[in-house]
Amino acid sequence: xxxxxxxxxxxxxxxxxxxxxxxxxxxxxxxxxxxxxxxxxxxxxxxxxxxxxxxxxxxxxxxxxxxxxxxxxxxxxxxxxxxxxxxxxxxxxxxxxxxxxxxxxxxxxxxxxxxxxxxxxxxxxxxxxxxxxxxxxxxxxxxxxxxxxxxxxxxxxxxxxxxxxxxxxxxxxxxxxxxxxxxxxxxxxxxxxxxxxxxxxxxxxxxxxxxxxxxxxxxxxxxxxxxxxxxxxxxxxxxxxxxxxxxxxxxxxxxxxxxxxxxxxxxxxxxxxx
Length: 274
What we know:
Structural class: alpha+beta
Number of domains: 1
CATH superfamily: Gcn5-related N-acetyltransferase (GNAT)
Organism: Ramularia collo-cygni
Distance between the termini: 45 Å
Mean pLDDT: 86
Oligomer: single chain
Number of helices: 11
Protein name: N-acetyltransferase domain-containing protein
Shape: globular
InterPro entries: Acyl_CoA_acyltransferase (IPR016181), Trichothecene_AcTrans (IPR052523)
């Protein structure tokens, strides 16, 4: 029987210690690309964009919103609701899900760009800029991602580390080709239930696509919802491929979508995405 207290450890003090170690081995405190995009905010403000870039001090709030947004998502349940965790309570599974979102969010605050819209972190997007990833040792150490090797169950580890991550990496490389490391990657975007239908998703996407268009770079994402596939389509993303997580009786489908950069001469679709 696994001890529930593992999931409820207060990691703030430990994270401070890990931050110190990570700095010694070369981890940056902020993403250079985040700073660069923020500098262009005056351009976006003129278009009425209300999204903002978050800082490290806001990782818990951002992660909590993402956890709420993905609470019932099939992909998230794929890692937490495994057969060898059938004895766990829903509360324990929720705590694990939340921890995963905290680690992933913190990693993107270190190496990528975390954008939020709405008064209470209603929608949060985790972007990875061109040429960046969160797979390096200092980022894994500092963000806490390494803890998943023991927090996830044996089956959960196989699903996350041996199936999910390789599938995403290989598929992105296949679809993007030589642009794999020269494109923006929308790793996560979620709107908590109370913030849906207010246009926040468009704001956090437009915040970065404006920069991507200016630089002539594509944007890439995976969607786990057919409804979201339609929404992303209205924002310029096109479906390129379906991939599947297959260690469950009912396979989990992920839709691979790419948004090509718009030229200045391209007209707006006129679609108001809520």
